[in-house]
Amino acid sequence: TLSLVWLRRDLRLHDNAALYHALRSGRPVLPLFIFDRIILDDLEDRHDRRVEFIVQEINRLRDELAQMGTALIVRYGKPIDVWKELAEQYNIGDVFTNHDYEVYAKDRDKAVGELLAERGIGFHTSKDQAIFERDEVLSGSKSPYTVFTPYSRNWHGKLNAFYLKSYPTKQYFRQFYKTGALSVPTLDEMNFRPVGEPFPARTVADKLLSKYDETRDFPALPHSTSQLSIHLRFGTISIRELARQAKKADDRTFLNELCWRDFYFQVLDHFPHVEKHSFRRDYDHIRWRNKENEFEAWCRGETGYPLVDAGMRQLNTIGWMHNRVRMITASFLCKHLLIDWRWGEAYFGKKLRDYDLSANNGGWQWAAGSGTDAAPYFRVFNPTLQAQKFDPKGEYIRHWIPELNSLNYPQPIVEHAMARQRAIDTYKKGLTKD
Ligand code: FAD
């Protein structure tokens, strides 16, 4: 009888909660990964960096496991169907996996848990990708926080060595079931093509921690931010190890970003309506203009506002955008163009290599002013002033827009002062409707 550990957003063997519990179950252990067709079939662009990254990391795991004389089971299909087959094929006693806070994932896990229970198989889940989750950081009245600052105060206050301890999986690796390596589907077999660009390093640059507070708002600097987001998204690094490093370097600003990550996980977990609606329901009444041609100009990076366009071109070219610029491009779409934040959210969702529903939704609702931690709607970023402040020499802008000073660069799609006033008026009207 085996214990299976189902890897999802935790593609590593060290410091992995579910794997640790599986290895300690007393039964031989086999890890499993499912390429989920429900997700993959929906991806229009078959050059998808995320799928490429997962394939790369799954092959790495397969090799690491092969060196220990064990295997990774890899399947391509719908999770519930795959589990039906696995339960037939293997003698499974227990299944271990880590929590996921997305609605789709919670429903999937519930269905799989029930299927396994019918077959007498235990389904055990653990916290792994967050430092604090669910009800671990609550307000004085025991309700979930909806404003970041008090949440973060509580979060930082609770952050002690206990919560950052690693799960020492390595000392139990002998518990892996001994068997020959199994095959991994290729990108081609799943009808994807490689983009073929290297992914950022898995480690945080020495220069970054302790200087992060000074660098993080300047997109032109080479180590402005860590670029670890894809690794955090797929769990190829451990959040606990990273937080320990930041704590050791006494980098509270960096830790605060990890706090935002936990914050948005718990928002999605407690308020699942945010996936489709504004957190503040009254914001669903805003009459967006939703002009398709303007949306397309924004997507292509042709709004005539250099910082907005540089950001969109960075996103389109490398599948990542600097945080400061994410805020500015998102705000521009919602406020200057009055396009529904959900359009922008979906576009980022297609393009970002670090796409994570909770952080992306949180970031977009923040920009639209509709979210948990919103600035008042009458605060509208001025993209020209933002560029002067955060890209004072125009280096970031010129890198992404080489034709900036030529006739080929478009005129501003909308005039700032007019757009600002129009946004304020439209929001006001929408919010006082009922
Ligand atoms: P660093 O600055 O080095 O931060 C370290 C880590 O902290 C990040 O990797 C990330 O995991 C976390 N983090 C940092 N800022 C935030 C934040 N505001 N919210 C949540 N976590 C944060 N982040 C995503 O991981 N996926 C997304 O899909 C995503 N979409 C966004 C959309 C918008 C409109 C905005 C404004 C922000 C979004 N962010 C998203 C948050 C942030 O922009 C990215 O996490 C960050 O730019 C990733 O680069 P980095 O790893 O160099 O970050």
Automatic annotation (TrEMBL):
Cofactor names from the entry are: (6R)-5,10-methylene-5,6,7,8-tetrahydrofolate; FAD
Q: Which GO terms describe its molecular function?
A: deoxyribodipyrimidine photo-lyase activity; DNA binding; FAD binding
Cofactor remark? Binds 1 FAD per subunit.
Keywords noted in UniProt: Chromophore, FAD, Flavoprotein, Lyase
Q: Which SUPFAM superfamilies match?
A: Cryptochrome/photolyase FAD-binding domain (SSF48173), Cryptochrome/photolyase, N-terminal domain (SSF52425)
Q: Which domain of life is it from?
A: Bacteria
**Record's InterPro entries?**
Crypto/Photolyase_FAD-like_sf (IPR036134), Crypto/Photolyase_N_sf (IPR036155), Cryptochr/Photolyase_FAD-bd (IPR005101), Cryptochrome/DNA_photolyase_1 (IPR002081), DNA_photolyase_1_CS_C (IPR018394), DNA_photolyase_N (IPR006050), Rossmann-like_a/b/a_fold (IPR014729)
Which family does the record claim for this protein?
Answer: Belongs to the DNA photolyase family.
Pfam families noted in UniProt: DNA_photolyase, FAD_binding_7
Residues marked Electron transfer via tryptophanyl radical (site): 288, 341, 364
| The protein's name | Deoxyribodipyrimidine photo-lyase
Query: Does the UniProt entry include the keyword Lyase?
Result: yes
A biological-process GO annotation: nucleobase-containing compound metabolic process
User: Which residues are listed for FAD binding in this entry?
Assistant: 212, 225-229, 254, 257-264, 354-356
Q: Boundaries of each Photolyase/cryptochrome alpha/beta domain copy?
A: 1-131
